[in-house]
């Protein structure tokens, strides 16, 4: 439907540029959803946002991860829908002291040469607005319709204005009204579901018990997971649950053994794992909370902060674990690094705690 927008076309174009090209009501809803739920540097609608290189290092293991991410818009009808896919390549830099598999709450195979593929869908369903929000929209579109009629030069044009839908009237909405219109959608929840699969290989060094000779072997490891979560419209936070099945391997416990020396020879002893690695299977239910905001330093100064708390329970081995990454390093375009504390309820004290420093890919409110 063509409406009399000759007088408003130039101002409409300027408003669209300054408010993110909000040409339709769906654009307005999507912009509101993203501003309420997403990090400034990660747009789930389109492009390769989220791609990058991340380096994680700790006292017992280090790795580098390369992420290739693709996001696309599949909105239709009253729903705003976004899809995302990512490919993550992981390579251990140094894990000579890491005898176990990954921490329970790490996810994937961070100690293996691995490839991970993830697919997710995010959507804002057609909503039922709050009364106050609905009144704001009615007022804006009523004023837009009156301006449309006033600008009409013919009876047919005035009739077209009187029956125009919301998208047709967007050309008669000012920049300030577009901002008010977008803000009226900020109370919407956003939902996300996804799946992920990882496969990798890891090499193990050990000694043969028969003759104490050095040996090595490779093992193929894998994990599959699924998750679902939501973000309330009132705050930049994410609440999620999920499940992961993971098969990995770990060294057998190291021993100090001494072969029988030949007559007259010096006794020689070896401390090492004796025997091939054993299989370790995790069947983990996990929950995650993420939050993004600012931490006040006083005097009107604040720094951006991203926080995640992930808790997992391995139903096979009756093990509980918690991971707490804190993002506080920023490059001006978003949060890019920080520290992570891992803890799990296992007997080996060397595998109970972990402290990591990471830098690279940005904080993702919807990481799964």
Structural class by SSE content = alpha+beta
Give the mean pLDDT.
79
Count of distinct structural domains = 2
User: Would you identify the CATH architecture of the largest domain?
Assistant: Beta Barrel
Task: Please give the oligomerization state of what you see.
Answer: single chain
Q: What do we call the CATH homologous superfamily of the largest domain?
A: monomeric porin ompg
Strand order of the largest sheet: 1-2-3-4-5-6-7-10-11-12-13-14
Based on Cα principal axes, name the global outline.
elongated
- What is the distance, rounded to the nearest whole angstrom, between the alpha carbons of the first and last residues? 42 Å
Unreliable runs? 1-20, 37-49
The count of DSSP E runs of length 2 or more, i.e. the number of strands, is 14
Break the fold down into its secondary structure elements and pairings:
Layout: H1 9-18, H2 25-37, E1 52-58, E2 62-73, E3 80-94, E4 113-124, H3 131-151, H4 155-162, H5 166-169, H6 175-183, E5 190-207, E6 214-231, E7 237-250, E8 254-257, E9 270-273, E10 278-298, E11 301-314, E12 319-330, E13 335-344, E14 353-359
Antiparallel strand pairs: 1-2, 1-14, 2-3, 3-4, 4-5, 5-6, 6-7, 7-10, 8-9, 10-11, 11-12, 12-13, 13-14
Helix pairs in contact: 2-6, 3-4
What does this structure look like?
By secondary structure, the protein is of the alpha+beta class. It has helices spanning 9-18, 25-37, 131-151, 155-162, 166-169, 175-183, and strands at 52-58, 62-73, 80-94, 113-124, 190-207, 214-231, 237-250, 254-257, 270-273, 278-298, 301-314, 319-330, 335-344, 353-359. A hairpin with a 5-residue loop joins strand 6 (214-231) and strand 7 (237-250). Helix 2 (25-37) crosses helix 6 and helix 3 (131-151) packs antiparallel against helix 4. The longest helix has 21 residues, at 131-151.
